[in-house]
Specification:
The chain is α+β, with helices and mostly antiparallel strands. The protein has 2 domains: 108 residues, Glycoprotein, Type 4 Pilin (2-Layer Sandwich); 66 residues, Hypothetical protein ph0010, domain 2 (Dna Ligase, domain 1). Helices cover 27% and strands 25% of the residues. The strands form 2 sheets. It has a 4-stranded antiparallel sheet with strand order 2-1-3-8. The two termini are 32 Å apart.
């Protein structure tokens, strides 16, 4: 498999559909049997899916968040990351109970394929709605996807404060020696009817 990082812009509509289907069917296997029976074979024309990228999988049922887990590192093929994160979102998000069989109907799967991280020298480089944030200070790390700021109507400072809080740090820590990294994401979703 190629060891190159995937750029979000290089994912075709077919590749996106394949990732969404893979995530949904993986969740179905897990929820119905509590184990993954198979890995979907990938068509040769979907070679982009063997490239490396970080990704998040978000699961929602009737508009209610049911799990969101991701991997930042671009050290595995994106299809493997999506499958692993689908499993984690369905059963390992500590904020929620594991997904139930009844929730497989009308389950929305959203995938965010991440660009490589880039450290910013000044917060003016952050574009709300375009960039996600990763803030690190000491052993604390917090990440918010680009769509979170847009969905909540946040400005840049509020987005930075919320990412600090996600890291378990006081709001405003981004002004005092924290490392701020940005990334963009290709976000796509589909609601499955079971």
């Amino acid at each position: 498999m190629p060891n190159t990082e995937l750029t979000p812009e290089s994912l075709s509509t077919d590749s996106r559909d394949t990732l969404l289907s893979l995530a949904y069917h993986t969740v179905c296997d897990l929820v119905m049997d509590r184990h993954i029976r198979h890995i979907q074979p990938l068509d040769p024309h979907l070679a982009a899916l063997t490239q490396h990228a970080g990704a998040f999988v978000t699961l929602s049922h009737h508009g209610e968040l049911r799990g969101c887990i991701g991997r930042i590192l671009a050290d595995q093929p994106v299809w493997q990351v999506v499958q692993q994160m689908a499993v984690a979102a369905a059963e390992n998000d500590p904020r929620f109970e594991p997904l139930s069989p009844a929730e497989l109907n009308d389950l929305e799967v959203e995938i965010s394929v991440l660009s490589p991280l880039r450290t910013v020298n000044h917060v003016d480089e952050i574009e709300v709605g375009k960039h996600g944030l990763l803030i690190t200070k000491g052993f604390h790390r917090g990440l918010l996807l680009p769509q979170v700021a847009t969905e909540r109507g946040w400005d840049r400072a509020t987005f930075l404060d919320a990412t600090c809080e996600k890291a378990g740090l006081p709001a405003g820590t981004w002004r005092r020696g924290a490392t701020i990294e940005i990334f963009s994401a290709l976000v796509f979703s589909k609601t499955f009817s079971g």
